What does this fold into?
Amino acid sequence: MSKKVIEMFESRFHHAPAVVAAAPGRLEILGNHTDYNEGFVLSMAVGQTTDVAMSPVEGTECIIYENGKDYSLSLNEIDIKIPGDWRNYLKGLLVELRKRGFTVKAFHAALTSTVPLSAGMSSSAALEMAFAYALKEINGIDLSLPDWARVGQGVENNFMGLKSGLLDQFSSLYGQANALIHCDFRTVEVLQTVSMPAGWKLVVANTLVKHNLVESDYNLRRQSCEKACAAIQKTNPEVKALRDVSPALLEACRNAMDPVDYSRALHVVGEDDRVMRGVDLLKAGDVESFGKLLFESHESSRFNFENSCPELDALVELAHTIPGCAGARLSGGGFGGISIHLVKEDMAEQYCERLKTAYESMTGKTIDTIICSIGDGARIITG
Ligand code: GLA
It folds into this structure.
């Protein structure tokens, strides 16, 4: 990959880039909508990355070369958001850096990516973090990894209007090849890495249902979680976030909150618990029981959090019937996007084919499948 982006840069700008950075997409394995509730997630970086080759230039005009085309970006116009334009992510990044007092030089860059777009693998976080790393090298920006994740979150929250948590950028930065990361979004750290069970693979099935979280109910879900938490805080001031709420405490406060907010909180509290149990099960090598937690998580998304859709439900239903799969669930924000399936490695190819065929005859629609590898986090390749 990095070779390709370097070649592209050299063919367009006729010299070697000063720096090459790569950042992966991510998969949320367990722990849905827990991140902005200061909870736990089991996630991983995928093998697919977004790569950026960059050199600084004089002045204020930047060029990003992608797929044979020049995209311009003026440092004088970073506050101007153009609806639907992917450069908004870069503008947002520059705005967030400016807020933190960093001046950024203009640049020429080439961009390539193998992270599928709008598919729940967080292509936007990969884009943000790849550019963040390139800009960091070129401008000598000194920020901690959690702060880089916050910069990316700021892009989503403030520039794009999506009130997302830290999961996507954090996983893109902290991912480790061949391991799942157990993340704590209160302390913003990796608590431990958990090996992927030998002989098992994660298969992504993309419903191709447009997954545009900015226009979805994502922010409403977050609001519901905050309302549920505020209702609990009235009698339990020690509670700072849903992370502090046990299933028993939630039940005890059930009548103090709106029933819909209760259902949303039930999902989040359940997910935190499933992450903890899931980590223990994986460490004990009990893949079958871990898989059941994935199914439970999906059921809770479908019923309590209502962030599934018929296409995702169909895929998870089929996962119960096709041999070789221990568990499946929607992954990421939801409302479309992808499901993940934990599948026996030697049956993974066959599983994908069977899932595609069964899904097509069930719904008349097609899906894309990817057998995922676990990649490293964001990195500088040269520079
Ligand atoms: C999206 C958001 C994340 C996280 C997940 C759901 O990917 O960007 O912050 O909330 O949804 O777990």
